[in-house]
Amino acid sequence: MKALAVNKSRLFLMLISAAILFLQTGCWSKDEIEDLSIYIGMALDIGEQSKVEKALEKQGAGYARKKAMTFTIQIINELKGGKGDKTPAAEQKAYINMSETGDSIFEMIREFSTRMERPVIGHHLKVIVVNEKLARRKRMDQLLDFFLRDNDIRPSAVVFISKSKASHTLETQSSTVVPAFRLLGITDNQYRSLKIMSPVTLAKLEGKMHAGMSYVLQNVVSAKGEVAFSGAAVIKGSSQKLIGFLNEKELVGLMLLSGQGKGGQIKAYHEERGEVISYEIKKLESKINAIVKNGKVTFEVEIETTGRVMEEWTPSELEINEAFTKQTEAAVKEEIEKLVLSTLAKLQDKYKTDVAGFGQRLRIQHPKVWEPMKKDWDEEFSQIPVTIHIKSKITEYGATSRR
């Protein structure tokens, strides 16, 4: 009898489950992917109408707006190699770029609806590139306001600055490369180069902008369809405008100073012989200590690296012994010190801006001291002495048999 009751219960549950599945109709408001234009990249430049825009405007396709900026979107070419297209698939690009000029990003996005049969959606936006000139004129929190408000756009989108025209970073001469994906992919190489920052996403930026903190954004330059990461743009927290750049060496110094580097190479020269030494960092640690004594604030930074020598041009007959290793470690330490001090001087003396996290350490370690200083922290930081302590250790010399 008990077995019969259990079987009846199971049968009842199965019937209920079947009824629920039958009643489900799916998402009533769904849009088929082939009916949408999925944009994955965006670029913001100083306003300059394209030839197409000018031609359309001459025929009355204009509307009231200031031509303050040009907004470019990169759309995945879903029709690449599709039926009815006579262009060989090998010659078709995997993306389509479209531009609109105006003063409201939201308005410009909606304006694309008058030029395209498929509505654009931003669920898969990967990168946003802002031109240097525009970032100097307009506040970053204003330029990014729409992206932070739009529920369609994910906060994981990565933000870049470009010294060259931002829309050019979303171009390539290859038919297989998608420029937005290329930019995102380069950020994955951070473990191989100290010239590549951790991706700065909309989610990370929102907190910094609301707090009035200064920060850096990776600079990307372009030429003939190719791109390269080259240094970083410094954004002043109080004005939210671009005030200058760190070159590639200074960015390396910042990565060492802040401990954000995941790995990379340091090139030094042997003191006596002048030969090249390439040191690959396998582990990087940086600790900033805020010290308050007699009402005065100072900082001490402890930077420690371990790594291996991947290239050195010393004579083959020279023995690699403990003395040689110490000389090599000293050369690497000296180079790291030069990079860090050069970056620190530029941040404190020229830009008067803290983008390395000194203020955060003071806030955590000495909150009462931080409180009256936080309003004008960048200016305060520029006057505070910083002492650097560096340790560099060589753990191996690669696969060479010479010892």
UniProtKB/TrEMBL annotation:
Signal peptide range equals: 1-29
| Location of this chain's protein in the cell | Membrane
InterPro entries, alphabetized: GerAC_N, Spore_GerAC-like, Spore_GerAC-like_C, Spore_GerAC_C_sf
* Bilayer topology: Lipid-anchor
Organism of this sequence:
Paenibacillus harenae
Q: What is this protein called?
A: Spore germination protein
Q: Which residues form the Spore germination protein N-terminal domain?
A: 30-209
Pfam families assigned to the protein according to its UniProt record, in alphabetical order? Spore_GerAC, Spore_GerAC_N
Does the record's keyword annotation contain Electron transport? Answer: no
Write the record's keywords in alphabetical order, separated by commas.
Germination, Lipoprotein, Membrane, Palmitate, Signal
> Boundaries of each Spore germination GerAC-like C-terminal domain copy?
230-398
Query: Would the keyword NAD turn up in this protein's UniProt record?
Result: no
The text of the family note is: Belongs to the GerABKC lipoprotein family.
